[in-house]
Here is the input.
Amino acid sequence: MEYGIFTVGDITTDPTTGRTPTENDRIKATVAIALKAEEVGLDVFATGEHHNPPFAAPANPPVLLAHIAALTQRIKLSTSTTLITTNDPVRIAQDYAYLQHIADGRMDLMLGRGNTGPVYPWFGKDIREGIPLAIENYALLHRLWREENVDWEGRFRTPLQGFTSTPRPLDDKPPFVWHGSIRSPEIAEQAAYYGDGFFSNHIFWPAEHTARMVALYRARFEHYGHGTAQDAVVGLGGQVYLAKNSQDAVNQFRPYFDRAPVYGHGPSLEDFTAQTPLTVGSVAQAVEKTLGFKEYAGDYDRQLFLVDHAGLPLDAVLRQLDLLGEVVAELRQHEAPARVEEEVSA
Amino acid sequence: MRTVAVVTAGLSDPSSTRLLADLLSTATVAALGQDARVEVVELRPLAHALTDHLLTGFATGDLAAALQTVTDADAVIAVTPVFSASYSGLFKTFFDVLETGALDGTPVLVAATAGTARHSLVLEHALRPLFSYLHAVVVPTGVFAASADWGAGGAGGELRRRIDRAAGELAALVAGSRQTVRLDQFDRDLAAMGDFESLLNGQ
Here is the structure.
């Protein structure tokens, strides 16, 4: 089981001070957050990809991840998500294979379609073709990392004849791929077909949506002969705001929650906490809520938390990570002994 | 047993919109001439949850149950007060957050209330196109009640005749339709998906 954080790189005004970070502030803060994640014992740092304000996530995540790789020793670098629809799969193959070499294999990536409508036409694509783009582009990416001389003809990019994507994956082992989707069964099916990982964003939706997608993926993973449904590789998102004392957490986070870009001005913090995986409280509360996820997702493989959004300043996020380190240490104590032994021997 | 869902967007209590909705559902059950269950969805208590749904993208609690009731119904009676020459924002929000396909082929009776009869064409220029867009089957007779209709000669006269005619049309559509289990978006996507090889081949 891996624990980590994922960021969307939003630039949001801190509602308690009125201060808006510059792009430079946000970019440097993202690096500091990744380093802190390693320091507190997390396994994964994942960055989003963005092409529009108010985000300062990289348009090409390997640029950021290669930099972090140089400053860290252990943490695995990933994405949340890499846009498989609007990026050229040839560039994904090349840029991420290069990152894999630079990071000595300490990376993987999560593919997503992207839900910002205008991004598609900016790159000459059509959002209504989101699913066919994800399927065709990944079919090419999958081959580019496994075959040296690729002949290719599809609907969405110019044909290739005898093309070799460089650099080749490190030790001829293609980077591990997760497919992320909130509610499109085609993407769960795609992940199962290839025996790849499936990641459910999980955080803005009630649990039953996640449960259905994960159940579909697990059943189809087994159907395609990659192993049992329990062997399927599942990742979930989560969201926490932590304090030593749970009432302090609620008081501190409420102004950020109430004006958060995604759900602000809507449900109360209390309702949203009850309805979604969000925990605003103590380390013990976050541990308890997170342990509950496997009741509907089964034993799963990766848990990523969102901690650095909605205008929270860097020092607050770094304090969050200290507490998240405590959450993760406790979660590891609850893991089934078999899984712990596997990891020790691996 | 057939189910008639009644969506009513009246804001006051008592509400003439709810009153009209009740007259329509009673007349529809009588016209059906068989066991029928009426499920009333009052939108006022769902107003906060509807706004939350707009902002978060998902329904919770009573709103989730109300959306399911309408999705599963054999017929829908939709009644709104007229606000600024159209249905009320609350009424529209409910149908905005209803899943795509939830009313495909569902018989719908549209009705509205207002202070004066000058608003009566709102049924034809606002409600009927909305439900046509949602692929519902709207009965030919819409029912409009102005304040004056609740007085002398109203509910007992012209309004009553329109209620009975519309209810008869709705009941005939229900009687002629088969009871079906409607799949939700996820299951419809799943059913439409086919196998992955055909997706890969761009089919």
About this structure: Strands of chain B lie at 2-8, 36-42, 75-83, 86-87, 107-114, 137-138, 143-146. Chain B has a mean pLDDT of 93. Chain B has eight helices and seven strands. The first strand of chain B starts at residue 2 and ends at 8.
